[in-house]
Prior knowledge:
Mean pLDDT: 87
Largest sheet: none
Amino acid sequence: MKLFALVALIMCAFAANSVLNRIGVALQGMDPMDFATVRTGAGAAMLWLLVIIRQAPRPPLFSAKRYAGAIALAVYMIGFSWAYITLDAGLGALILFGVLQIVVFGWAVFEGGDIPLLRWIGAGIALTGLCVLLWPSGTTPVPIGGAIAMTIAGAAWAVYTLLGRAEADPLGATASNFLLCLPLVALAMLAAGIGEMPIAGIITAIIAGAVTSGLGYALWYRALPALPTTVAGIAQLSVPVIAVGAGVLFLNEPLTTRLVLAGGLVLGGIAVSLAARR
């Protein structure tokens, strides 16, 4: 029960990233680049504090893998923040997870791996769900700019995930990536021009960086050794569902039939792929 409660808390933290970004950028009027920079800085500070507290050897900062991870993380942070100017919290989470699944699957195909039939079927179902979600509609069309930004963020997060495979020190690697990512996001903020930074928006970004990102990732890496791979993957399927529910409850976002159908297809496709991994 303790492990279940911990995993449930972590999934709520991951879903809260979408909700907090939506609140900070769309509702509190904070510039997306400013939000991304504050979030990244707060996350780096929290992760490095945890690295120092654990009294283990410090992770290396400068390597080709760290630079690549930092660039992928920066693209994710920027795209994620931009997307939530127009996207609802749950809609953005669904696009992110759908793109993540498809890119990771595509990379497996590129590497020439032995891909089970169920993984092909799962990827096809998830892609169908994304098509349903993003197909132009006269009733409630998905904002194209936000969808493109979140698609780029999802692809960057997939690259970041692939780079982190078989990482010996996940917490240390994440702390290093966040620290190296910070100047990249800050440069993007300076290039875009520093906008208004309301106190409420800054506080929201700090919470998103230090708590739901920094502490969330740290707790996730602590829980992962006790979880089978398929269970860990299936647990993450709850994140878009929680984000949709939180958006409906706290942000008064609409729960449409199209969103429910597309969400079921995306999450169902990922679940089928996870069954293939077993």
